[in-house]
């Protein structure tokens, strides 16, 4: 896996995310989650925009990413093979080779995102994008430092957190300017069956669809907030959780105003930032060495 594959995965998710809006978005599990969390938006808001499923030509920046963010079941940036969050396959420690590979791929990815940022400057407000790119650089430096100290599990975790944050920055630029306008778009390997997303048509989300996506983002933030609050050394995870919460507030306001496409886009950005917070939390709590056991929580349920 290299940085071009990571970029490609991001754009692939963008297309998949757009397709989700045309079908069944989320099932009964989300409905039950909504009933247990309290103050999430409901489908009762009076929209000021049409809530019908009218066909429209999508810009080259369809909503990107699912509410859960870029990380998959094991914390990887694009939902790869499952990991326990501390490096290799569940129960196994990260290796020096793995740490070196992740750091190299992250370095290449950040370089590509920086080229996109250079293009975006002057064309959009890049304040948050710049902050996230700087944050990715900082996380990469932490990965390199951990690697130099032979703390390979922490090195891998910080490198993956940096990858997720860099991809979040790229997502924000793609949503605003169009994925196909960014320099990294021409560098990604072409995949059979994937149409040019600048020509993609999609169906506008209905109020019901938007409500489920926004509510799912809320549920995710509540869960992540509880994890971070329960951890004494969460590192910079709180910073990215706050960014995610701000993105959710934007999503909520857009939903209440009946701007369902904007609500979905902001909710998914909140999900990605929540994933970054989770990755940073994993890095901050990674064991010092492969021989160091992690804390096993007592059953409090």
Task: Describe the structure using short key phrases.
flat; two-stranded antiparallel ribbon; 8 helices
Write the layout of secondary structure elements.
Layout: H1 3-20, H2 28-37, E1 55-57, H3 96-120, H4 127-148, H5 152-177, E2 201-203, H6 207-229, H7 237-256, H8 260-284
Antiparallel strand pairs: 1-2
Helix pairs in contact: 1-3, 2-6, 3-4, 3-5, 4-5, 5-8, 6-7, 6-8, 7-8
Protein architecture, described:
The structure is a single chain. The protein is mainly alpha-helical and 301 residues long. Among the domains are: 1-9 and 87-188; 205-286. The protein has helices spanning 3-20, 28-37, 96-120, 127-148, 152-177, 207-229, 237-256, 260-284; strands at 55-57, 201-203. A two-stranded antiparallel sheet has the order 1-2. Helix 5 (152-177) packs antiparallel against helix 8 (260-284). It is flat and about 55 Å long. Residues 11-89 and 190-201 have low confidence and may be disordered.
Shape: flat
Largest pleated sheet:
2 strands, antiparallel
Summarize the helix and strand pattern as letters. HHEHHHEHHH
Helix content: 55-70%
| Radius of gyration computed on alpha carbons | 19 Å
Major β-sheet strand ordering: 1-2
Number of DSSP helical runs: 8
N-to-C CA distance:
39 Å
User: Structural class, from secondary structure content?
Assistant: mainly alpha
